[in-house]
Amino acid sequence: SDGAGVLGLSFIYALLGVINGPLFPACSVLLRTVPVQGRSRASALVDAGGTLGGCLATALCPVLATWLSWRTLYYIMAALAAGSALVWLAVAGSASAAGEGSRT
């Protein structure tokens, strides 16, 4: 039924918002590994990447969902999100274990 689909999609969308909420505070962890003189550029790249990604997703996802089906696109996006999370864990974990960067 369409009602269950809308309710499920709304729940997932709200959950994504809750999960993405800590994104910008988490960037402060990323910035600790960047030398002081490069922190503003790194912060700008993170901010611009999020904005550009949102614009591209808004433009491309409807086309891809029509071409592939929304379920297939959903699984592709989930795989990309999980893959990027694993890369982040590996990179951030190795950087903090090595004690890189300065907290000043």
Description:
There is one protein chain. The protein has 104 residues and is mostly helical. Helices cover 85% and strands 0% of the residues. The protein contains 4 helices and no strands. It is elongated, with a radius of gyration of 17 Å. 0% of the residues are buried. The mean pLDDT is 79.
Report the oligomer. single chain
Structural class: mainly alpha
How many helices? The count is 4
| Helical content class | over 70%
The first-to-last residue Cα distance is 55 Å
Shape: elongated
- Uncertain runs: none
- Mean pLDDT, to the nearest integer, reads 79
String of helices and strands: HHHH
Which value, in Å, is the CA radius of gyration?
17 Å
The tally of strands reads 0
Largest sheet: none
- What portion of residues belong to β-strands? under 5%
Tell me briefly what this model is.
The chain has 104 residues and is mainly α. 85% of the residues lie in helices and 0% in strands.
